[in-house]
Amino acid sequence: MDTADNMIVFSHDAQGDIPPVRRLSTPHRNFASAIDDEKGEVFITIQYPPKVMVYRREASDREKPLRVLEGEHTGLYDAHGLAIDLKKKLMFVGNWGNASDYRVAGSGKFYSPSITVYPLDASGDTAPLRVIQGPKTQLDWFGGMSLDPDNGNLYVANDVGNSILIFKETDQGNVAPSRIIKGPKTGLSHPAGISVDAKNKEFWVSNMGNSSATCISLTANGDAAPVRTIRSAPAGRVSLKFGKPQAVAYDSKREEYLVPN
Fold this sequence. Notes:
Elements: E1 4-9, E2 22-36, E3 41-46, E4 51-56, E5 67-69, E6 79-85, E7 90-95, E8 98-99, E9 109-110, E10 114-119, E11 130-133, E12 145-148, E13 153-158, E14 163-168, E15 179-181, E16 191-197, E17 202-207, E18 212-217, E19 228-231, E20 249-251, E21 256-258
């Protein structure tokens, strides 16, 4: 995620320090993935230059993708989260809005965050079917997305907003979420990853801000407490929340480290 250039696959029962079953090389800065078990395909978003790569589910090493969604008409700008609807054959991609042509100096632009929706088999320079975008959406550096296939709710881990936003998969334009999970009782702190468990009617969220994974009811709303929480640090411990730091400097007078984040 975020800084990687490969996808590694482990067996379902993997445990301990064991090598992956296989490794797939991808363009640098892949972020999210989704599986279409019916067609045996894996979808992977690439942040920059933005694109969605589709491979065979069993692809490994330097195997070429089956198809690629990319181009100026796609509306992809710093692609991050990814969710697919196998029933309605739709693909949802989260975009942070950073855009530029790396070959042209000074071409950088910034668009407001968006969720772009495509046919599941979209490829090439395909325009989205619709776009969720605007201040009412409250999208703010959001990470993972996951779809509840039973009712068409799209759950979004809204990192900087410290919230989970729930949209209808039919939403379009500058629309407010149908529900927002946010508040001190939720245990959310810079939520990054999210996964819906439709069978048990709950979803899991990974929190970068407090080293925890929280399990929340699919019907939760507002400042709702999680069903249960798994921690890798004591409660109340605040994570450093570094994100792709690439340099460091030391201020000898103040005895402080300066890290651009």
